[in-house]
Amino acid sequence: MKFSNYLDRKYIFIDLNATTKEEIIEEMLEKVSETNQHFLDRKEEILKSILKREDEISTCMGEGIFLPHARIKDLNDFVIAVGIVKNEVMGEIGGTKELDKIKLVFLIISDVLRNKNILRSMSVISKLALRHPEVVEKILNTDNKKEIVELISVEDAEIEHRMIAEDVLGPAVKPVREDDTLEEVAKRLVLENQKAFPVVGEDGKFLGEITEKELIAFGMPDHLAIMNSLDFLTVGEPFEEYLLNEDIVTIENIYRKDLKFLKIDRQTPIMEICFKMVYKGIHRLYVVDNDKYYGTINRSDIIKKVLHI
Questions:
Q1: 152 and 201 in one domain?
Q2: Predicted confidence (pLDDT) per residue in 13-24, tens digit
Q3: Are residues 223 and 143 in the same domain?
Q4: 16 lies in which domain range?
Q5: For position 302, what pLDDT does the model report?
Q6: Tell me: the pLDDT tens digits for 103-126?
Q7: CA-to-CA distance for 110 and 67, rounded, in angstroms?
Q8: CB neighbours of 94 closer than 8 A, spacing ≥ 6?
């Protein structure tokens, strides 16, 4: 079934009066329970599960979108409720300390065995927010529930098919360019808590990656590569050359270029991704189609989005 098939007008609420994240969840769950016996019978359990998930990490995704969700054992149901927030409610964007004004809410409740439905639904919603901000604005400014369903459906997709790379792309990692300096890349690695960055050309073409290893290696004497031991080494401290040239030398000649084993396309099945990460020792994969870079999948993205969705 497509995402749009799960959008029921009776679960679209255009007048939420909540003033906090918790109140948004409580109000929407209360409204859903009025017409759904499964939810009414297990309302407290569902609420507790959603709030626990929010305490662990916020599901505010930025762009005014809030995605509270829960997986409930033996629920035997899958519901997507949509809410428009009238009051000013702020929420922390998950994984950051940035605050965002919550405007549009998608409350998703599923049976635990329909995990991929949640994941693919969240993928659709993310694309809606990132690719069609003008559509989100129209949703916020209409009180016509039929129109809201039609607007949301602009990024429609099958959600019961197998999970693929496109569903688990991590938060956008801004690539670096060949003419970025060592200093610029090193600062970004630290500030953004990354271990590597994709390198792309001006046309978005994927060229390779620059990692912590290449930056450290730049500061080491070349002849160390052929030594088995440093017992007889009588040289000064490393990184002298690096520190003298960090704001001048670019990464053009040091980044890794032969990365066929790290590239996958957007349709790569999640099982293949996990196989590469578990049995091939790969920590990250770059999603590339027709040579164009689309995003990065880290091991942590599998944990966050599949195992701890």
A1: no
A2: 998 999 999 999
A3: no
A4: 3-158
A5: 84
A6: 999 999 988 877 778 888 888 888
A7: 13
A8: 57, 58, 59, 60, 61
